[in-house]
Amino acid sequence: MTFIELLQQAWANGNTLLQVGLDPDPKRFPRELDGKPDAIFQFCRDIVDATAQYACSFKPQFAYFAAHRAEDQLEALCAHIREKYPHLPIVMDGKRGDIGTTAENYAREAYERYGAHALTVNPYMGFDSVEPYLGWKDRGVIVLCRTSNPGGSDLQFLKLDSGEPLYLHVAGLVADKWNAGGQCGLVVGATFPNELAAVRQRIGDSMPLLVPGIGAQGGDVTATVNAGRTQAGTGMMINASRAILYASGGDDWREAAATAAQGLRDEINAVR
Protein backbone atom coordinates (compact mmCIF):
# COMPACT_ATOMS: atom_id res chain seq x y z
CA MET A 1 0.00 0.00 0.00
CA THR A 2 1.35 3.45 -0.91
CA PHE A 3 1.56 6.39 1.46
CA ILE A 4 -1.39 8.09 -0.24
CA GLU A 5 -3.52 4.95 -0.06
CA LEU A 6 -2.63 4.46 3.60
CA LEU A 7 -3.52 8.07 4.38
CA GLN A 8 -6.82 7.87 2.52
CA GLN A 9 -7.66 4.73 4.45
CA ALA A 10 -6.82 6.46 7.75
CA TRP A 11 -9.09 9.39 6.89
CA ALA A 12 -11.97 7.08 6.03
CA ASN A 13 -11.66 4.43 8.73
CA GLY A 14 -10.65 6.74 11.55
CA ASN A 15 -12.93 9.67 10.63
CA THR A 16 -10.14 12.09 11.50
CA LEU A 17 -7.87 14.67 9.86
CA LEU A 18 -5.74 15.18 12.97
CA GLN A 19 -2.01 14.61 12.74
CA VAL A 20 -0.15 14.33 16.04
CA GLY A 21 3.27 15.97 15.90
CA LEU A 22 6.03 14.39 17.98
CA ASP A 23 8.39 17.19 19.07
CA PRO A 24 9.84 15.90 22.35
CA ASP A 25 11.38 18.52 24.64
CA PRO A 26 12.88 16.82 27.72
CA LYS A 27 12.65 20.09 29.69
CA ARG A 28 8.86 19.73 29.55
CA PHE A 29 8.62 16.03 30.36
CA PRO A 30 6.73 14.82 33.44
CA ARG A 31 8.84 14.16 36.52
CA GLU A 32 8.34 10.40 36.31
CA LEU A 33 10.71 10.36 33.31
CA ASP A 34 13.55 12.22 35.06
CA GLY A 35 16.87 10.46 34.68
CA LYS A 36 15.62 7.72 32.38
CA PRO A 37 18.02 7.11 29.48
CA ASP A 38 15.20 6.36 27.05
CA ALA A 39 12.88 9.11 28.30
CA ILE A 40 12.32 10.51 24.80
CA PHE A 41 11.16 7.16 23.51
CA GLN A 42 8.98 6.49 26.54
CA PHE A 43 7.34 9.91 26.36
CA CYS A 44 6.61 9.71 22.63
CA ARG A 45 5.52 6.07 22.80
CA ASP A 46 2.97 6.86 25.49
CA ILE A 47 1.73 9.91 23.58
CA VAL A 48 1.28 7.72 20.50
CA ASP A 49 -0.59 5.09 22.47
CA ALA A 50 -2.82 7.73 24.07
CA THR A 51 -3.72 9.52 20.84
CA ALA A 52 -3.64 6.90 18.07
CA GLN A 53 -7.41 6.43 18.04
CA TYR A 54 -7.86 10.11 17.20
CA ALA A 55 -5.04 10.49 14.63
CA CYS A 56 -4.74 10.02 10.88
CA SER A 57 -0.92 10.12 11.06
CA PHE A 58 2.08 10.88 13.24
CA LYS A 59 4.82 13.40 12.46
CA PRO A 60 8.13 13.00 14.32
CA GLN A 61 10.34 16.10 14.04
CA PHE A 62 13.84 14.77 13.37
CA ALA A 63 15.77 17.62 15.03
CA TYR A 64 14.14 17.05 18.42
CA PHE A 65 15.63 13.57 18.46
CA ALA A 66 18.98 14.28 16.82
CA ALA A 67 19.75 17.20 19.14
CA HIS A 68 19.68 14.78 22.07
CA ARG A 69 21.57 12.01 20.24
CA ALA A 70 18.34 10.05 20.36
CA GLU A 71 18.20 8.73 16.81
CA ASP A 72 18.08 5.20 18.21
CA GLN A 73 15.01 6.19 20.22
CA LEU A 74 13.44 7.61 17.04
CA GLU A 75 14.07 4.26 15.34
CA ALA A 76 12.40 2.47 18.25
CA LEU A 77 9.46 4.89 18.15
CA CYS A 78 8.90 4.41 14.42
CA ALA A 79 9.12 0.64 14.87
CA HIS A 80 6.52 0.88 17.66
CA ILE A 81 4.13 2.84 15.44
CA ARG A 82 4.56 0.46 12.51
CA GLU A 83 4.00 -2.58 14.73
CA LYS A 84 1.05 -1.38 16.81
CA TYR A 85 -0.59 1.05 14.37
CA PRO A 86 0.27 -0.16 10.85
CA HIS A 87 -2.79 1.66 9.53
CA LEU A 88 -1.35 5.10 10.48
CA PRO A 89 1.36 6.66 8.30
CA ILE A 90 4.55 8.17 9.71
CA VAL A 91 5.51 11.52 8.17
CA MET A 92 9.13 12.30 9.02
CA ASP A 93 9.59 16.06 9.36
CA GLY A 94 13.14 16.79 8.24
CA LYS A 95 12.60 19.48 5.56
CA ARG A 96 15.51 18.07 3.58
CA GLY A 97 16.71 20.22 0.70
CA ASP A 98 19.83 18.84 -1.00
CA ILE A 99 20.40 17.15 -4.37
CA GLY A 100 21.96 14.09 -5.95
CA THR A 101 23.49 11.36 -3.81
CA THR A 102 23.09 13.48 -0.68
CA ALA A 103 19.34 13.57 -1.22
CA GLU A 104 19.36 9.85 -1.96
CA ASN A 105 20.98 9.22 1.40
CA TYR A 106 18.46 11.45 3.16
CA ALA A 107 15.76 9.35 1.49
CA ARG A 108 17.39 6.11 2.63
CA GLU A 109 17.60 7.49 6.15
CA ALA A 110 13.91 8.40 6.29
CA TYR A 111 12.43 5.50 4.34
CA GLU A 112 14.78 2.64 5.21
CA ARG A 113 16.37 3.44 8.58
CA TYR A 114 13.23 4.88 10.17
CA GLY A 115 10.62 3.26 7.97
CA ALA A 116 8.77 6.54 7.43
CA HIS A 117 5.96 6.54 4.91
CA ALA A 118 6.61 10.14 3.88
CA LEU A 119 9.15 12.93 4.35
CA THR A 120 8.97 16.74 4.22
CA VAL A 121 11.36 18.33 1.72
CA ASN A 122 12.45 21.83 0.74
CA PRO A 123 12.07 22.69 -2.99
CA TYR A 124 14.42 25.70 -3.03
CA MET A 125 16.93 23.86 -5.26
CA GLY A 126 14.19 22.86 -7.69
CA PHE A 127 13.18 19.44 -8.97
CA ASP A 128 16.72 18.14 -8.43
CA SER A 129 16.06 18.35 -4.69
CA VAL A 130 12.78 16.42 -4.93
CA GLU A 131 13.37 13.80 -7.61
CA PRO A 132 15.61 11.45 -5.56
CA TYR A 133 12.83 10.88 -3.02
CA LEU A 134 10.38 9.88 -5.74
CA GLY A 135 12.46 6.77 -6.43
CA TRP A 136 10.70 5.09 -3.50
CA LYS A 137 7.41 4.62 -5.35
CA ASP A 138 5.33 3.68 -2.31
CA ARG A 139 6.48 6.65 -0.20
CA GLY A 140 5.25 10.22 0.02
CA VAL A 141 7.11 13.48 -0.58
CA ILE A 142 5.60 16.48 1.20
CA VAL A 143 6.93 19.71 -0.33
CA LEU A 144 7.15 23.00 1.56
CA CYS A 145 4.84 25.53 -0.06
CA ARG A 146 3.38 28.20 2.27
CA THR A 147 4.77 27.75 5.75
CA SER A 148 3.14 28.88 9.00
CA ASN A 149 5.99 31.12 10.24
CA PRO A 150 5.71 34.91 9.71
CA GLY A 151 9.11 35.09 7.99
CA GLY A 152 7.93 32.71 5.29
CA SER A 153 6.55 35.74 3.46
CA ASP A 154 10.10 37.00 2.89
CA LEU A 155 10.34 34.61 -0.06
CA GLN A 156 7.08 32.72 -0.45
CA PHE A 157 4.95 35.80 -1.16
CA LEU A 158 7.29 37.34 -3.72
CA LYS A 159 5.53 38.01 -7.03
CA LEU A 160 6.85 36.53 -10.26
CA ASP A 161 6.72 38.41 -13.56
CA SER A 162 3.36 36.74 -14.18
CA GLY A 163 2.03 38.29 -10.99
CA GLU A 164 1.73 34.91 -9.32
CA PRO A 165 3.21 34.63 -5.81
CA LEU A 166 6.07 32.17 -5.45
CA TYR A 167 4.18 29.82 -3.13
CA LEU A 168 1.42 29.35 -5.73
CA HIS A 169 4.05 28.75 -8.40
CA VAL A 170 5.50 26.00 -6.22
CA ALA A 171 2.03 24.51 -5.74
CA GLY A 172 1.49 24.51 -9.48
CA LEU A 173 4.88 22.95 -10.23
CA VAL A 174 4.24 20.11 -7.82
CA ALA A 175 0.66 19.51 -8.97
CA ASP A 176 1.30 19.79 -12.72
CA LYS A 177 4.79 18.32 -13.13
CA TRP A 178 6.38 16.75 -10.06
CA ASN A 179 3.41 14.66 -8.92
CA ALA A 180 3.30 12.39 -11.95
CA GLY A 181 3.45 9.31 -9.74
CA GLY A 182 0.84 10.55 -7.28
CA GLN A 183 3.32 10.65 -4.38
CA CYS A 184 3.39 14.34 -3.47
CA GLY A 185 1.72 16.59 -0.97
CA LEU A 186 2.27 20.17 0.18
CA VAL A 187 2.97 21.89 3.49
CA VAL A 188 0.65 24.89 3.87
CA GLY A 189 0.28 26.64 7.23
CA ALA A 190 -2.98 27.16 9.09
CA THR A 191 -1.91 30.69 10.03
CA PHE A 192 -2.62 31.89 6.46
CA PRO A 193 -6.12 30.57 5.59
CA ASN A 194 -6.49 32.76 2.50
CA GLU A 195 -3.30 31.34 1.03
CA LEU A 196 -4.39 27.85 2.08
CA ALA A 197 -7.62 28.34 0.10
CA ALA A 198 -5.65 29.63 -2.88
CA VAL A 199 -3.42 26.55 -2.86
CA ARG A 200 -6.40 24.19 -2.67
CA GLN A 201 -8.03 26.03 -5.55
CA ARG A 202 -4.81 25.85 -7.60
CA ILE A 203 -4.20 22.11 -7.10
CA GLY A 204 -7.79 20.90 -6.84
CA ASP A 205 -8.27 17.71 -4.87
CA SER A 206 -5.17 16.07 -6.34
CA MET A 207 -2.86 16.18 -3.32
CA PRO A 208 -2.99 16.08 0.47
CA LEU A 209 -1.98 19.11 2.50
CA LEU A 210 0.05 18.93 5.69
CA VAL A 211 -1.20 21.88 7.71
CA PRO A 212 0.84 23.01 10.73
CA GLY A 213 -0.02 25.99 12.88
CA ILE A 214 -3.10 24.80 14.81
CA GLY A 215 -2.95 25.03 18.59
CA ALA A 216 0.13 26.72 20.04
CA GLN A 217 0.76 28.69 16.84
CA GLY A 218 -2.75 30.13 16.85
CA GLY A 219 -4.27 28.83 13.63
CA ASP A 220 -8.08 28.83 13.52
CA VAL A 221 -9.67 25.40 13.06
CA THR A 222 -12.82 26.57 11.28
CA ALA A 223 -10.96 28.80 8.83
CA THR A 224 -8.38 26.10 8.21
CA VAL A 225 -10.83 23.31 7.46
CA ASN A 226 -13.02 25.49 5.26
CA ALA A 227 -10.00 26.64 3.29
CA GLY A 228 -8.20 23.35 2.79
CA ARG A 229 -10.65 20.46 2.70
CA THR A 230 -11.46 18.60 -0.49
CA GLN A 231 -14.95 18.04 -1.88
CA ALA A 232 -14.99 14.77 0.07
CA GLY A 233 -14.23 16.61 3.32
CA THR A 234 -10.72 15.16 3.63
CA GLY A 235 -7.39 16.00 1.96
CA MET A 236 -5.63 17.38 5.04
CA MET A 237 -3.29 16.33 7.82
CA ILE A 238 -3.94 19.07 10.38
CA ASN A 239 -0.96 18.94 12.69
CA ALA A 240 -0.91 19.74 16.38
CA SER A 241 2.12 19.10 18.56
CA ARG A 242 2.63 21.13 21.74
CA ALA A 243 -1.08 21.56 22.46
CA ILE A 244 -1.34 17.77 22.72
CA LEU A 245 2.10 16.73 23.99
CA TYR A 246 2.13 19.18 26.89
CA ALA A 247 -1.58 19.39 27.67
CA SER A 248 -0.55 18.58 31.25
CA GLY A 249 2.75 18.42 33.10
CA GLY A 250 1.30 16.36 35.91
CA ASP A 251 0.73 12.69 36.48
CA ASP A 252 -2.28 12.79 34.15
CA TRP A 253 -0.21 13.76 31.10
CA ARG A 254 -1.24 10.70 29.09
CA GLU A 255 -4.94 11.24 29.75
CA ALA A 256 -4.61 14.97 29.10
CA ALA A 257 -2.95 14.31 25.73
CA ALA A 258 -5.74 11.92 24.78
CA THR A 259 -8.38 14.45 25.81
CA ALA A 260 -6.68 17.23 23.85
CA ALA A 261 -6.39 15.05 20.76
CA GLN A 262 -10.01 13.95 20.98
CA GLY A 263 -11.18 17.51 21.45
CA LEU A 264 -9.25 18.77 18.44
CA ARG A 265 -10.38 15.83 16.31
CA ASP A 266 -13.98 16.59 17.21
CA GLU A 267 -13.54 20.32 16.60
CA ILE A 268 -12.18 19.59 13.13
CA ASN A 269 -14.96 17.11 12.35
CA ALA A 270 -17.61 19.60 13.39
CA VAL A 271 -16.53 21.82 10.48
CA ARG A 272 -16.05 19.10 7.86
Summarize the structure.
Helix content is 43%, strand content 14%.
What share of the residues does DSSP label as strand, in percent? 5-15%
- What value does the Rg take, in angstroms? 18 Å
| Regions with little confidence, pLDDT below 50 for 5+ residues | none
Give a count of the beta strands, DSSP E runs of length 2 or more.
8
Dominant shape: globular
- The number of helices is 11
Structural topology:
Blueprint: H1 3-14, E1 18-22, H2 39-51, E2 57-60, H3 62-66, H4 71-84, E3 91-96, H5 100-113, E4 118-121, E5 140-146, H6 153-156, H7 166-178, E6 184-188, H8 193-203, E7 209-211, H9 221-228, E8 236-240, H10 242-245, H11 253-271
Parallel strand pairs: 1-2, 1-8, 3-4, 4-5, 5-6, 6-7, 7-8
Helix pairs in contact: 2-4, 2-11, 7-8, 8-9
